[in-house]
Amino acid sequence: MSFTDQEILETIRMIELETLDIRTTTLGIDLLDCADPDLESTCEKVYTKIVHHARALVATAEGITRDYGIPIVNKRIAVTPAALFSAASGASDLVPVARAMDAAAKEVGVDFIGGFSAYVHKGFTNADHALFESIPEALAVTEHVCSSVSLATTRAGINIDATARFAEIILDAAERTREQGGIACAKLVCFCNPVEDNPFVAGAHVGIGEPETVLNVGVSGPGVVRSAIERLGPEADLLSVAETIKRTAFKITRMGELVGREAARRLGTTFGIVDISLAPTPAVGDSVADILELMGVERTGAPGTTALLALLTDAVKKGGAMASSSVGGLSGAFIPVSEDAGMIEAVRVGALSLAKLEAMTTVCSVGLDMIAVPGDTQASTLTGLIADVMAIGMVNHKTTAVRVIPVPGKGPGETVEWGGLLGTGIVQDPGAFGCELLHRRGGRIPAPIQSYRN
Q1: Do residues 217 and 263 lie in contact, with contact meaning Cβ atoms separated by under 8 Å?
Q2: Contact yes or no for 141/155 (Cβ under 8 A)
Q3: What CATH number labels 25-192?
Q4: Element (H, E) at 240
Q5: What is the mean pLDDT of residues 58-69?
Q6: Phi, psi for 301 (deg, rounded to 5)
Q7: Residue 87 to residue 131: CA distance in whole angstroms
Q8: Burial of 4 (0-12, 13-18, 19+ CB in 10 A)
Q9: Which of 61, 123, 171, 341 is deepest in the core (most CB within 10 A)?
């Protein structure tokens, strides 16, 4: 892969002035061969294998930063869904597995490890039940472990039984971390159509079609896109805006693939994908909301927001696809409310509601992400909230997700500080009316007719 002098100078400007970075290098590790009838042996194998393969990950990332001058913000690990490799033990409590994952993450010095996960979109195995029931304690007693579950797919429909139980799991996890503003839920997400090469937490895990080990990279450039649109000016039409975003995404992707391939080479592993999702931070100027407002809305959440987010997401994907044959993960635009300074402000002034965020879910990379709700929200309300987003993904053949945080002791309009990348949450009102009957009915919502494509 060759680069021109102009491309190199542009990249330097992006890094120094526009907050461009590699958001994460995520090493995927298959753990299926760690399965053992004895859970303690499983945990020992999990710890040993993770440390063996990931011991050089942080040093490699730091070496690339020194050699190329490209910031790599997070170093992460993703593993095979724990429900799969823990099944052989028959254990009903899988918290020891989470502890082993956490200990390995601490040993190698990574930020997070994803994969305390289960696929239950069509039903539960015994191991799935065990993992579900272990989630609240596992996230409360570990520091680095992230958990995810698949509740729906286009081909299977939506498992409402699992969705209802997951809603109760969320409330339990929030209560166990009451003093930290329910922070356990910031490490917990549910999916429709989950992506098996996603490098971003909390949903990062390694699918069964992935290699023994694989290096996936997540690149983030909201600040770069924002600056490019700002330079374009307000007189340009939307086709020009789309072309500018596409060209910018092309440059970002090229840098991401360079780093990903070099990191994989140094680690002696396979390069997987580069995820070009625009992932914001609480830093000023690193906001997807700012981009949308420069594109044409007075405040994110105003009429026109969903249309502009659709343009943004599509242009990012097109630019990435032009730059690399290895674009994967989610790739598009994230809208994690608490992690985006512009989104936080839009919620504060009343421009951005849960209803508008649900509409934006139809065209962005994920969905309702880092949403704070009152701590006394009913499980049935969470069930309905999650089911709505799962339905959007199911019908539209896309990945959608929910990461919702009931904040104990807080009500609508109040704020909670999680700090760091997680930012500030403003508690949103889920509404006065619920769906208790839906929650009680259970069962499955069948797959839509468009799922039958053979």
Answers
A1: yes
A2: no
A3: 3.20.70.20
A4: helix 238-267
A5: 93
A6: 110, -15
A7: 10
A8: exposed
A9: 61
> For residue 261, what is the enclosing H or E element?
helix 238-267
pLDDT digits over 317-358, tens only?
A: 999 999 999 999 999 888 899 988 899 999 999 999 999 999
118: which residues sit within 8 A by CB, 6+ positions away?
Answer: 81, 82, 83, 127, 128, 131, 132, 149, 150
Angle between the N-to-C axes of helices 39-54 and 95-108, in degrees from 0 to 180, rounded to the nearest 10 = 20
CA 176 to chain centre: 22
SS3 290: helix
Say what the pTM is.
0.93
- Are 26 and 275 a contacting pair, CB within 8 Å? no
Report the chain's mean pLDDT, rounded to a whole number. Answer: 93
Q: Is 270 exposed, middle or buried (0-12, 13-18, 19+ CB in 10 A)?
A: middle
Q: What is the pLDDT of residue 6?
A: 59
The per-residue DSSP string of 98-131 comes to HHHHHHHHHHHT-SEEEEEEEE-SS---HHHHHH
Q: Which two tokens mark 369?
A: 């992400």
Angle at 190 between CA 186 and CA 193, to 5 degrees: 140
Average pLDDT of span 306-320: 96
Find out whether 192 and 415 touch, Cβ atoms under 8 Å: no
Nearest partner of 109 among 81, 74, 141, 140, judged by Cα: 74
pLDDT digit string (tens) for 287-301?
999 999 999 999 999
What pLDDT was estimated at residue 270?
96
Average pLDDT over residues 167-185: 97
For the chain, helix (H) and strand (E) counts, in that order, are: 15, 13
178, pLDDT greater than 60: yes
Residue 443 in 3-state DSSP? coil
Secondary structure of 162-231 as H, E, C letters: HHHHHHHHHHHHHHHCHHHCCHHHHHEEEEECCCCCCCCCCCCCCCCCCCCEEEEEEEECHHHHHHHHHH
Q: What residue type is 418 in one-letter code?
A: W
pLDDT, one tens digit per residue, over 412-446 is 999 999 988 788 999 999 999 999 999 999 999 99
